[in-house]
Design a protein that fits this description.
7 domains, 5 helices, mainly beta, 714 residues, five-stranded mixed β-sheet, Immunoglobulin-like, flat
Length: 714
């Protein structure tokens, strides 16, 4: 009843006049029950005395929360008992109050059925959205009471008067993809179009319309948009501000959950056969456990090598990788198959046909792709036959045919056949695979194991040029296995009839020093295994590990680039590179004999460099004698009559020092293990530290001084 509905929205009427008002409760009615719509408001009330509303008096009506009043209302749009005043009502849009003046020639009679009417021309609109309940309060002139004189007599709930936009999805529990879902609603604009969207998407998934009373008739088709937002709110709008399904409007809006779909690719199968199923709208990135599917209540193992099936992020299986299961031992007939991922499930009916079972055995029980397997069968159809290449193997969600000749079954139902396993996903995927045999009447199956591929090396670390032995297994029989060190092919071998390989390779001379490299063995039939091999850093050793400056030491290097000259050898900060520089052999080794230069006694680093490769070792420089006074050490030279000058480099001062046998000579000491540069005025043979040297006239000649400083002229 519209009157009853209005009463809850409109509230109470209170006369403003006497200390003891006689106005009693009234009732509000509306010309429309739609939200956010201009409406006529009629409020009836009772006066108990003529003094309630005297000549020139007024009544003030307060509208409930959410009502929309204009800033002004013309006098002609309002009346009291059918009489309009010449004075326009006083309107407060903020407080939702309107004061209406009594235009009668006499006081308003004491009577029931008094009518306060706001016509549609007043511009008063119903609330836009649902709010807490409220009342219409009326007060008459002269009233000094603390409470309203009259209050809407119907329910205080605002929804008793106004129908706010609301919708219902007519798919209880959800619907599967492709299903048309009906949507109904009320409280919308009249005779207008309807759009349906879903939370989080602007895509219009359905349309409809409203009738003259704002009732909705619409629908949408469950699809990709509704699946990706499963369980979210359906939003129904009319483009006129009336929307259901958002928290800012009346009601939370209807929700919709898209159901999963499972479709078998075959309508029937025998016990032991594998059935492929296409999935849609399951839990994205979820999984179907190995034995969660049931047929007539009996668990059916996954066809994925008895392992769980991983659902893609799309929520559905692909054409090339359907979900599969193996028909379990159960009674024949039509069964309900239920496929569940633990959260979402779907079902379909399926016929399990009569299964006449034979027995099959395989030898060996573990085999690789392209390997020959001997099968024996019993209890098959007597004197029957098995067609060539009709024996199949299933693994890794793929069924492939084996290679074999036609098989004759003897009169006792027994047979023997040798089959070659194909090189497909069924045999390249490690795990348990099924070999399925049928003679057209009876069937049998046997499980064989596809082993893991393995690849090992005799050492996982070494140097350039090292010989490494490798072994592999689980490769396709008779396939070519290519061994690579990084990007370089270092060996090519052929797998034997069981898929095993063995061989050797040399670590490439181009491998970085140091480096970590991937070594892989890849079959031409598919399948690869890899591991890491480390090429160590270059190294040097020194013999002896302690010596004095000027002494000779031997440096041995290894792990350097092959057939390369030594770029430099330093001891401390000084070069000790011999001339000519030594070179490495074919595996990066070298040997060099060097003199220890004049460096400070103590621990020094010896660094050998070839190109960008370096190695270092610790070396101890021993303390030598402090030397011999120059005038004493060089006395034989100065007394020969041919002496001109001697000089030497002082590593302490960092400068050359000279001796010419005069006061002020910078060279005051000839140090052991140093180098003298002698200049004589005539050809002279000298013996320095026991070694004879020839000095040409006027030619500076470098001569090494040994640990013992002795100089004589021959």
């Amino acid at each position: 009843m519209v009157a009853a509905l209005l009463a809850g929205i409109l509230g109470s009427l209170v006369p403003v006049g006497k200390a003891s008002a006689a106005i009693s409760a009234g009732e509000a009615t509306l010309s429309t029950a739609l939200a956010n719509t201009t409406t006529q408001v009629t409020y009836t009330f009772t006066t108990g005395a003529t003094s309630d509303v005297p000549v020139g008096g007024n009544v003030e009506i307060a509208f409930p929360t959410g009502w929309q009043l204009p800033s002004s209302i013309p006098a002609t749009a309002v009346s009291l008992n059918g009489v309009s005043s010449s004075t326009a009502p006083i309107v407060s849009a903020a407080t939702r109050k309107a004061t209406v003046f009594w235009g009668g020639a006499a006081a308003m009679p004491a009577q029931s059925g008094n009518v306060l009417l706001f016509s549609s021309a007043a511009g008063i609109k119903t609330p836009k959205k649902a709010a807490a309940g409220g009342t219409f309060n009326l007060e008459a002139s002269g009233d000094t009471g603390a409470s309203p004189d009259a209050t809407d007599a119907s329910t205080a709930a605002i929804t008793a008067h106004v129908k706010f936009a609301s919708a219902t999805v007519r798919a209880y529990g959800g619907a599967a993809r492709g299903t048309t879902v009906d949507v109904t609603g009320e409280g919308y604009g009249t005779s207008t179009g309807i759009n349906i969207t879903i939370t989080g998407s602007s895509v219009v998934i359905g349309t409809g319309s409203t009738d003259g009373s704002g009732t909705v008739t619409a629908s949408f088709v469950a699809g990709g948009t509704t699946y990706s937002r499963s369980g979210q709110v359906i939003i129904v709008s009319d483009g006129k501000g009336n929307v259901s399904g958002t928290t800012s409007n009346f009601g939370a809006g209807p929700t919709f959950t898209q159901l999963a779909t499972a479709t078998s690719r075959t309508a029937s199968a025998r016990v032991g056969q594998t059935v492929s199923v296409d999935l849609l709208d399951y839990t994205a990135s979820g999984s179907i456990a190995a034995s969660s599917t049931t047929i007539g209540g009996t668990a059916a193992l996954s066809g994925n090598s008895n392992a769980a099936f991983a659902i893609p992020a799309t929520g559905g299986s692909s054409f090339n990788t359907p979900y599969t299961f193996v028909v379990p031992s159960t009674t024949t007939g039509t069964k309900t198959v239920v496929v569940t991922d633990g959260t979402k499930s779907a079902s379909f009916t399926f016929d399990v046909t009569a299964s006449l079972k034979g027995t099959v055995a395989a030898l060996p029980t573990s085999a690789v792709a392209s390997q020959k397997v001997t099968l024996t069968g019993t209890s098959f159809t007597a004197s029957g036959s098995i067609s060539a290449n009709a024996i199949t193997i299933t693994g890794g969600n793929l069924t492939s045919t084996t290679t074999h000749s036609a098989v004759s079954i003897d009169s006792g139902g027994s047979w023997v056949a040798q089959v070659t396993l194909p090189a497909t996903t069924a045999t390249l995927t490690p795990g348990s695979s099924r070999i399925y045999v049928t003679d057209g009447t009876k069937t049998g199956l046997v499980y064989i194991t596809i082993p893991e591929r393995a690849f090992t090396v005799s050492s996982t670390a070494g140097a350039r040029g090292d010989t490494v032995t490798f072994n592999g297994s689980g490769y396709a029989a008779s396939s070519t296995v290519t061994v690579k060190f990084g990007s370089s092919t270092v060996a090519t071998v052929t797998a034997n009839a069981s898929g095993d390989v063995t061989g050797t390779f040399k670590v490439p001379l181009t491998a970085n020093i140091p480096s970590t490299n991937v070594v892989s063995g890849t079959s031409s039939a598919g399948g690869a295994v890899s591991l890491y091999y480390k090429v160590g850093a270059a190294a040097i050793t020194v013999n002896p590990t302690t010596a004095t400056s000027g002494s000779s030491i031997v440096i041995n290097g290894s792990g350097f680039p092959a057939f390369s000259a030594v770029s430099s050898i330093t001891i401390g900060t000084l070069s000790a590179t011999p001339l000519p520089a030594p070179s490495t052999d074919g595996v990066g080794n070298f040997t060099a004999s060097v003199l220890v230069p004049q460096v400070a006694a103590g621990t020094q680093a010896i660094v050998a460099t070839i190109g960008t490769t370096t190695a270092s070792a610790s070396f101890t420089v021993g303390a030598g004698s402090s030397g011999v006074v120059a005038t004493t050490a060089l006395a034989a030279l100065t007394g020969s009559g041919n002496f001109e000058i001697a000089s030497s480099f002082n590593y302490t001062s960092g400068a050359y020092e000279a001796f010419i046998n005069q006061t002020g000579d910078k060279m005051t000491t000839v140090k052991p293990n140093s180098v003298l540069i002698l200049t004589m005025t005539a050809d002279t043979d000298v013996i320095v530290s026991g070694v004879k040297f020839s000095v040409k006239a006027n030619t500076p000649t470098p001569i090494p001084v040994g640990a013992n400083v002795t100089i004589t002229v021959v």
